[in-house]
Amino acid sequence: MGDPYSWRGLGRRMFDVYIQGDRVLRDFNVQAEAGGSKRALVKTFEASVNNTVMDVHFFWAGKGTCCIPYQGTYGPQVSAIRVSQGT
């Protein structure tokens, strides 16, 4: 969805983000927030972790694109997550 010069750039990846069951982002559009495609974006959240399990859920609520640039292209796309222990 990174081609701003053709119809292939019209798609949107919008999703909600839940951490440990709490919604921390609603209708999040990573491309709009980062200022374009293929750009790094850093978001920071705090969460309590029990039993060494952290649950991060990306929920596509049907508000993004489902067919551009290809059929079946929809929902979140995240390349990396960093988790660190707080002090």
From TrEMBL:
A single MF term (Gene Ontology): protein serine/threonine kinase activity
Name of the top EC class for this enzyme: transferase
Annotated compartments: Membrane
Alphabetized UniProt keyword annotations: ATP-binding, Glycoprotein, Kinase, Nucleotide-binding, Phosphoprotein, Receptor, Serine/threonine-protein kinase, Signal, Transferase
Enzyme Commission number, as recorded: 2.7.11.1
Residues covered by the Malectin domain: 7-81
Coiled-coil regions, chain positions: none
Listed GO CC annotations: membrane
Gene3D superfamilies given in the database record: Galactose-binding lectin
Protein name: non-specific serine/threonine protein kinase
